[in-house]
């Protein structure tokens, strides 16, 4: 059920996929909400099936869609599966449909359709609140990738219908003089410079996207190529302080040899001439791992497998890895109970823990009985508690504004429990919207502490929409030992 996972402003997690890996029987979509506050039993889950697709009469088959969180907290889900491979056609095909999920009413609304299908697209929320949509298999079941670049304009407040516009004309990507058509699920980030960066997984999928107008006002520039192909590797915008990210880190993935790599590389848009430079390698080579930004600015890498054998993992890949920004080194942490490779997801929860879920062809032995299992129809999740949750009492947020305006300063209140250390930092972390190792809404923005007087903190909001594209963020306080509070959601608004 957890091929796609999105953290909602209510603190719940939206999970969607197909109901069972049994394509001939169940070629339709399923979605559920998990409320972490209600624990891990059946009562903590509520089914929220996607709307009926009039072409099939069944819930829309949105698994392996792209998804991101819009500025108003609604979730855009675009594309999905139109057709599976079969005896006569080995290709899959992409859905043209798109939906919004409203976390408050917990209901879906259908959006206009895209011009062509998209199975495995990426969605990028830009500084102006619109969403760039790229890649994915088309609807024709010919194995072709959708070469349109489209932009979704969200509905006005209170309205339900957004709009897709074609950017640069039909087939703008991959045409002569235009950027390459990115491979499936391209890595896309909104950078401090006010540009989108497309960064892999194929080496030449590297270009900057200017904030598009519509039609022919498409502006782009080439960017340095990756050192290698990183299919189903992870890519993360590294924390760049209060001004937002300038660097992207890529780890793992597989290349032409079909084997996972442990290598990593980074790009800094403030030094483009340096290109992609080697970064501290993972301890264990991985593909289909999930790498998450944590509130303290470190990273955790979870799961993954051996490479092009997408559902195959080894014991080494059970262990999580932790990245220290001060040393650029990865070290091994505790092991997961299950293998989690292809179709696994991980999200940072508002309470500072990390949900790790999925791998719909689960080849692990049953962790309770030790019995082998072929894994089909087995789906489980586990929760990782990072080291910062074992270092003493956590600071507590007692009051925070619901909305903060870019460029402003704002006040919030907190308390430090007995035995706790004083608060030193405040950060915004965007809620995850992840599938296939690609988190389409990952971002960490430091907030400058302007003044601290007792329990009151005065904080500087991010300076502009390139530092923090408007939308919901989890605000964490961190004490002198890096122990985070439980987050509160704040909505960052344009000035
Ligand atoms: Cu998939």
From TrEMBL:
<feature type="domain" description="Galactose oxidase-like Early set">
    <location>
        <begin position="394"/>
        <end position="492"/>
    </location>
</feature>
<dbReference type="Pfam" id="PF09118">
    <property type="entry name" value="GO-like_E_set"/>
</dbReference>
<dbReference type="InterPro" id="IPR037293">
    <property type="entry name" value="Gal_Oxidase_central_sf"/>
</dbReference>
<dbReference type="InterPro" id="IPR015202">
    <property type="entry name" value="GO-like_E_set"/>
</dbReference>
<dbReference type="InterPro" id="IPR011043">
    <property type="entry name" value="Gal_Oxase/kelch_b-propeller"/>
</dbReference>
<dbReference type="InterPro" id="IPR014756">
    <property type="entry name" value="Ig_E-set"/>
</dbReference>
<dbReference type="GO" id="GO:0005975">
    <property type="term" value="P:carbohydrate metabolic process"/>
</dbReference>
<protein>
    <recommendedName>
        <fullName>Galactose oxidase-like Early set domain-containing protein</fullName>
    </recommendedName>
</protein>
<dbReference type="InterPro" id="IPR013783">
    <property type="entry name" value="Ig-like_fold"/>
</dbReference>
């Amino acid at each position: 059920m957890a091929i796609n996972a999105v953290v909602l402003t209510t603190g719940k997690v939206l999970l969607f996929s197909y109901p069972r890996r049994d394509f001939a029987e169940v070629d339709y979509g399923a979605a559920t909400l998990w409320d972490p506050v209600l624990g891990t039993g059946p009562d903590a889950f509520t089914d929220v099936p996607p709307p009926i697709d009039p072409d099939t009469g069944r819930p829309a088959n949105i698994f392996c869609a792209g998804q991101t969180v819009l500025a108003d907290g609604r979730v855009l889900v675009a594309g999905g599966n139109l057709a599976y491979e079969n005896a006569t056609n080995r290709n899959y095909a992409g859905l043209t449909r798109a939906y919004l999920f409203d976390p408050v009413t917990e209901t879906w609304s259908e959006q206009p359709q895209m011009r062509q299908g998209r199975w495995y697209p990426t969605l990028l929320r830009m500084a102006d609140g619109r969403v760039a949509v790229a890649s994915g298999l088309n609807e024709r079941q010919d194995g072709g990738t959708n070469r349109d670049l489209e932009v979704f304009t969200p509905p006005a407040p209170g309205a339900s219908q957004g709009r897709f516009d074609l950017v640069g004309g039909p087939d703008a990507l991959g045409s002569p003089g235009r950027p390459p058509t990115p491979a499936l699920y391209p890595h896309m980030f909104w950078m401090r410079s006010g540009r989108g960066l497309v960064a892999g997984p194929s080496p030449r999928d590297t270009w900057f996207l200017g904030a598009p107008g519509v039609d022919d006002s498409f502006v782009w520039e080439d960017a340095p190529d990756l050192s290698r192909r990183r299919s189903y590797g992870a890519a993360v915008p590294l924390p760049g302080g209060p001004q937002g990210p300038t660097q992207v880190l890529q780890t793992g993935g597989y290349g032409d040899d079909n084997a996972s790599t442990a290598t990593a590389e980074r790009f800094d848009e403030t030094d483009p001439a340096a290109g992609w430079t080697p970064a501290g390698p993972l301890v264990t080579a991985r593909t289909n791992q999930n790498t998450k930004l944590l509130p303290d600015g470190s990273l955790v890498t979870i799961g993954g497998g051996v490479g092009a054998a997408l559902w195959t993992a080894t014991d080494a890949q059970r262990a999580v890895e932790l990245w220290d920004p001060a040393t650029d080194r990865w070290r091994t942490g505790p092991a997961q109970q299950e293998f989690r490779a292809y179709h696994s997801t991980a999200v940072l929860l508002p309470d500072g823990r990390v949900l790790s879920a999925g791998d719909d062809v689960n080849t692990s032995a049953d962790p309770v009985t030790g019995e082998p299992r072929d894994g089909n129809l087995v789906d489980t999740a586990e929760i990782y508690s990072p080291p910062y949750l074992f270092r003493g009492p956590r600071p507590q947020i007692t009051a925070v504004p619901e909305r903060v305006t870019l460029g402003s300063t704002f006040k919030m209140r907190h308390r430090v429990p007995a035995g706790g250390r004083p608060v030193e930092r405040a950060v915004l972390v965007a809620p995850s919207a992840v599938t296939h190792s690609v988190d389409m809404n990952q971002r960490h923005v430091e907030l400058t502490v302007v003044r601290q007087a007792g329990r009151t903190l005065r904080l500087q909001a991010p300076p502009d929409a390139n530092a923090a594209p408007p939308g919901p963020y989890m605000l964490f306080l961190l004490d002198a030992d890096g122990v985070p509070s439980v987050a509160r959601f704040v909505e960052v608004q344009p000035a």
